[in-house]
Each structure stands twice: as structure tokens, then as C-alpha cells.
Amino acid sequence: MNGKYSSYLDNLIKKLSSLPGIGPKSASRLAFHILKMHPDEVTGLSRAITDLKENIRTCGVCGGISEGEVCGICVDPSRDRSMVCVVEDARDILIIESTGGFKGLYHSLNGLLSPLDGIGPEDLSITGLVERCRSGGVSEIILALNPTMEGDATSLYLARVIAGTGVRVTRIAHGLPVGADLEFADGATIAKSIEGRVSM
Q1: What is the pLDDT along the chain (200 residues), one digit of tens a residue?
Q2: 45 membership: H or E segment, kind and range
């Protein structure tokens, strides 16, 4: 800001600008909004962020977010344990859960294969997925990866790797536009994509 405003405000705008999807203008609007907030609201916001970082961890089973060693979805006895939906990251689990259309379990890969970026199979949680397939009880793996070049490559790789376990591999129907992310799809589209999944 070249000294036009307070260095404190300048610093907050820089921090907010580093968040995904937040440009300098949006960061400035957010910073000025925070400046107008009641001190108790600011303290609450700060506390919520700190609590998130201090208390949320990765589920030891599916790789989703959890407050304990294992998340609430994985320990829920009402879930269909024969179906495991594979997603790119924990955010996609929340997106699919919000549709209410899937009652199985999940597995987060924590990324997609991308040789150009140096991301190979060893960088993703593929070993854990294969172990879940071999442990028994799982009859179907549903690949719910974004329909991008990296998502397609990862899906094909997983289909080959899982083929030797005897578990059926399907992929959600492409009601999603090519190149689109699950994050931007509406719940009905995601639910229909899971219902209309096809064999790999």
C-alpha cells in the first residue's frame, strides 16, 4: 500500500491475499470489514481459526478431516462398508456428503498424479487404498475424481492397480462438465453422477 494506510492493515491484506480465490481487491474488502467488526466478533473469528488448526487432524482410515484418530464417517455403523468413494482431497468428501446421496465410506488420495509436477503414485495415499481393497469387505471402489487430464490419468492408474484385488471399480458418470471441479458442481449433479457411475 506504499504507506497510504496502516502497516497492520497492509499486513492483513497481504495475508488474506495469500488465500485461494482471494485477490487483492477481495482481501482489501475483507480487511476493512474486519476492521469494522466488533472486537468480540474478531476474537471469535481468530479463535475459530486457531481451534481449527489445533484440533483438526487427518483421519487415519480415509484421510479426511477428523477431530480424533478416526473420523465420524468411518466409525458410523450405519454406513455401507462395501462401497468406498475415492476423492482427490478431504474437501471433496464434504462436498459429496452435503448431497446426502452417498452412504458408503471414503478414501482421500491427497492429490492427483501429475508427472509434469513431479507427483507420482508414491506421493498419494494409493497403498492405503489397495490395502483396504485386500482387507475384505469392500466390493466396489467408486472413483469420484475431477474430469481433468490428471483426474483421468489417476483414475486409469487406480483401475489397473485395484484390478488385481478382485474389487469392482466404477467411476461417477460425467454429468460434470469436462475440466470442472466437484467444488463448483451443485449437489443434485454430484448425486446423479454417483448414481450413474460406470465400470472402469
Answers
A1: 445 668 999 999 999 999 999 999 999 999 999 999 999 999 999 999 999 999 999 999 999 999 999 999 999 999 999 999 999 999 999 999 998 889 999 999 999 999 889 999 999 999 999 999 999 899 999 999 988 889 999 999 999 999 989 999 999 876 555 556 666 666 766 776 676 666 76
A2: helix 39-55
